[in-house]
Amino acid sequence: MAQAGLKTIIALSFVLAIGFLLVILSSALYQNYLPLLVVATYVIAPLPNWVCARCSNPDDFMDSGNSGAVVDFGRFLTGFLVVMGIALPALLAHCDLIRTSAMAMSIVGGLLIYGTIISFTMFFQEEQDF
């Protein structure tokens, strides 16, 4: 992966700020704070993937051989949370708890937030040399 520099950090911060702005505006403009639940799902979404990747191979000397199932389970939970972050505003709009414009702003803002988190982990992960 390319070396991440100051411009990458600034660009990711700008995109993250736009994502949070869209989610906050989707709540504040319509005086309904239910779309803020999207932020929680997108912030929690990478955690199962990270935890399961760490638990799959805790020791370099002992390989249990069953680490694939743990990693797959982490990816499943991450995918579930990402889909929930998209489906939750759609469900709230379908039930007329939020407006459709608030739903669109919440979904776009949530995708920007999650995309920034994924990009940050891609650019700034440490490469292991064996």
Brief digest:
With 130 residues, this protein is mainly α.
Brief descriptors of the model:
130 residues; mainly alpha; flat
Layout of secondary structure:
Blueprint: H1 6-28, H2 37-44, H3 46-56, H4 67-94, H5 100-123
Walk me through the structure.
By secondary structure, this protein is an all-alpha fold. Helix content is 72%, strand content 0%. The chain is built from five helices and no strands. Helix 4 (67-94) runs antiparallel to helix 5. The longest helix is centred in the middle third of the chain and has 28 residues, at 67-94. 25% of the residues are buried. The model has no long low-confidence stretch (mean pLDDT 84).
Number of strands: 0
> Could you list the spans in which at least 5 consecutive residues all have pLDDT below 50?
none
Order of helices and strands: HHHHH
Question: Biggest sheet, in brief?
Answer: none
Give me the number of helical elements.
5
Rounded to an integer, what's the Rg over CA atoms?
18 Å
- Estimate the mean pLDDT confidence: 84
Residues in helix, %: over 70%
Described by the principal axes of the CA atoms, the overall outline is: flat
Class computed from helices, strands and strand pairing: mainly alpha
The share of residues in extended strands comes to under 5%
Distance between the termini: 17 Å
